[in-house]
């Protein structure tokens, strides 16, 4: 009897070709569409809604001659992804809903529904790969980057665990996006030329402040510019300046006292008296470090970037130009309870240090770093200064093309 696979048909080209690949491999394939979001608040009008996705998913299932079902997971999606997202933004943090969606919905709630259809495996259209190795008599599953470097989505799965990987299949992980498009075109699939989805997982591309105002109240606050001492910009006489500490590049020693690690990962501390009020905003919780858009201030030769926020005092701190030192930091810290190991057999012990390649956002090239496991949590110190480190983001560490673990950035 053939193994039964439930494919998450999203109405996009990737999951469509994933279903075809599995059928070609001899699996008994079932298509299952997830309806996770109904509200259109803040959704940009150019984006399609879930009804369009459902229509395309049904067309693909019919073309491939596979059974098709749909399920409404909007309740767990709101509770476990969107509510978390609102709570994080309210604290002045920057969550990644796509990472959460994979951990909490696609490989959890969706898997429960797949079992109701007697599915042995769950498959998605992610550009990543999975293999397995033996450790004694125990099977260990490895999450690997996709073949297509431009589309690799392993970062978005950095919070999955061994149990979830055991029943997961990634049929297009060894294909490139052009190859997927070509297959869909040759098969005559309705999704062959359909644009990739953008924005928040299952919600779409939104105007974030409008979307967040469903739960977060807008309130006026000051935009304060921090001018770095020694920066080559025109200054009027008497302008306040801030002296940033000089931070050298390169990896530190393997043995460092926790005080030194804390100093290397501590975010810059600002207060209004250190800068100059140059405008107003509608809520500090709508902004994140590295953000360029949404600044209600002019009169600068270069673009302004957010270098810090204070939600308690409702202040947004900005700096002029991409080279502003407030945008760059040497390291970050992850609290003990937020550390997640995909490879549990490689879990670091307290006082241990280890070198890995790390990324803190999707599509960021992997960065050389040294991880220090301490009683409080994980300190990650980078070889080169990193731009836009923000609390709430996920840092994922790799050994070659394998994702070893990840964690939510605390500071």
Overview of this protein structure:
The chain has helices at residues 13-24, 50-64, 74-90, 97-116, 162-166, 177-187, 208-212, 258-265, and strands spanning 4-8, 28-35, 68-72, 121-123, 128-135, 138-145, 168-169, 221-225, 276-281, 304-310, 315-320, 328-335, 339-341, 353-359, 367-373, 377-387, 394-399, 402-408. It is an alpha/beta fold and 411 residues long. It folds into two domains: 4-211, HUPs (Rossmann fold, 3-Layer(aba) Sandwich); 217-411, Elongation Factor Tu (Ef-tu), domain 3. The radius of gyration is 23 Å and the shape is globular. The relative contact order is 0.13.
| Unreliable sequence segments | 231-236
Largest sheet: 9 strands, antiparallel
Instruction: Measure the end-to-end span.
Output: 51 Å
User: Any idea of the CATH class of the largest domain?
Assistant: Alpha Beta
Keywords:
9-stranded antiparallel β-sheet, 411 residues, alpha/beta, globular, 5-stranded parallel β-sheet, 2 domains, Rossmann fold, single chain, Elongation Factor Tu (Ef-tu), domain 3
Short description:
The chain has 411 residues and is α/β, with parallel strands linked by helices. The protein has helices at 13-24, 50-64, 74-90, 97-116, 162-166, 177-187, 208-212, 258-265, and strands at 4-8, 28-35, 68-72, 121-123, 128-135, 138-145, 168-169, 221-225, 276-281, 304-310, 315-320, 328-335, 339-341, 353-359, 367-373, 377-387, 394-399, 402-408. Residues 231-236 have low confidence and may be disordered.
């Amino acid at each position: 009897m053939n193994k039964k696979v439930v494919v998450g048909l999203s109405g996009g080209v990737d999951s469509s070709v994933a279903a075809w690949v599995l059928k070609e491999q001899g699996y008994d394939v079932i298509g299952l569409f997830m309806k996770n979001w109904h509200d259109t608040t803040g959704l940009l009008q150019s984006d399609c809604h879930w009804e369009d996705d459902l229509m395309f998913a049904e067309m693909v299932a019919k073309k491939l001659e596979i059974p098709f079902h749909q399920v409404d997971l909007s309740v767990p999606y709101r509770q476990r992804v969107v509510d978390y997202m609102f709570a994080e933004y309210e604290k002045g943090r920057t969550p990644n809903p796509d990472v959460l969606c994979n951990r909490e919905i696609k490989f959890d709630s969706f898997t429960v529904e797949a079992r109701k259809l007697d599915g042995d495996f769950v498959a998605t259209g992610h550009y990543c790969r999975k293999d397995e190795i033996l450790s004694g008599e125990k099977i260990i599953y490895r999450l690997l980057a996709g073949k297509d470097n431009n589309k690799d989505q392993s970062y978005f799965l950095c919070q999955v665990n061994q149990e979830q990987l055991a029943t997961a299949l990634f049929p297009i992980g060894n294909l490139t996006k052009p190859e997927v498009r070509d297959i869909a075109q040759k098969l005559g699939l309705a999704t062959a030329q359909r644009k990739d989805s953008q924005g928040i997982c299952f919600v779409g591309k939104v105007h974030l402040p409008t979307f967040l105002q469903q739960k977060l109240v807008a309130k006026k606050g000051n935009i304060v510019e921090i001018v770095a001492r020694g920066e080559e910009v025109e200054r009027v006489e008497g302008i306040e300046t801030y002296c940033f500490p000089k931070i050298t590049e390169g990896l530190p020693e393997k043995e460092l006292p926790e005080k030194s690690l804390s100093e290397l990962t501590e975010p810059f501390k600002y207060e209004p008296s250190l800068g100059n009020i140059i405008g107003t905003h509608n809520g500090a919780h709508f902004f994140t470090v590295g953000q360029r858009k949404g600044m209600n201030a002019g009169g600068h030769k270069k673009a302004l970037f957010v270098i810090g926020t204070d939600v308690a005092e409702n202040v947004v701190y900005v700096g002029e130009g991409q080279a502003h030192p407030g945008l760059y930091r040497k390291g970050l810290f992850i609290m003990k309870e937020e550390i997640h190991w995909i490879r549990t057999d490689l879990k670091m012990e307290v006082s241990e240090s280890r070198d890995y390649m790390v990324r803190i956002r999707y599509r960021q090239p992997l960065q050389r770093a040294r991880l220090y496991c301490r009683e409080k949590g994980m300190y990650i110190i980078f070889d080169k200064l990193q731009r836009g480190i923000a609390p709430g983001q996920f840092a994922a560490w790799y050994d070659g093309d394998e994702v070893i673990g990840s964690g939510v950035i605390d500071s």
